[in-house]
Design a protein that fits this description.
- The protein is of the alpha+beta class.
- It has three helices and nine strands.
């Protein structure tokens, strides 16, 4: 009986620590995926990627740093990404990242209504890569090719 209670206590403590860890990393945020339920982020246009995400020089849900970003003010861009504010990002020394051996120098950072980072997008081999806080997606829409020459 004592062993059962002791084992139950250990399981309880481990489960509580994983919940606390998830909350600390932003996984239990209210409305975390609310914006992703919009039809613009669903369907055949977006292919889910199973590969690991790149190591980014940004943290999910961190607040926007105005020094490194220029707001994208384009109606079609805003219609493609409803609920998000898009900002151009250009590589700065010590703030760049790599994707499959390719250095990413231009990207788009997407912020939600709370001004927290929820996605990073960039071009790779003619495909728009959309790394979200819930996974990675790609889109081969020609619209993004015109934006790849920022």
């Amino acid at each position: 009986m004592k062993k059962s209670i002791f084992l139950l206590m250990i399981v309880f403590l481990l489960s509580m620590s994983s919940i606390a860890s998830a909350a600390h990393n932003g996984h239990n945020r209210p409305n975390k995926h609310k914006v992703w339920s919009h039809p613009a982020y669903q369907g055949a246009r977006w292919d889910r990627m199973d590969r690991a995400r790149p190591s980014l020089p940004f943290k999910w849900h961190e607040r926007r740093n105005e020094r490194f970003h220029d707001r994208i003010r384009d109606r079609e861009w805003e219609q493609r990404f409803p609920g998000l504010r898009s900002y151009r990002w250009h590589s700065q020394p010590g703030h760049d990242f790599w994707y499959r051996g390719h250095r990413i120098t231009n990207a788009v950072l997407f912020y939600d209504s709370r001004d927290e980072l929820v996605s990073v997008g960039f071009m790779y081999n003619g495909t728009f890569i959309f790394i979200r806080d819930d996974g990675g997606y790609r889109n081969r829409d020609s619209f993004f090719i015109s934006w790849s020459h920022w």
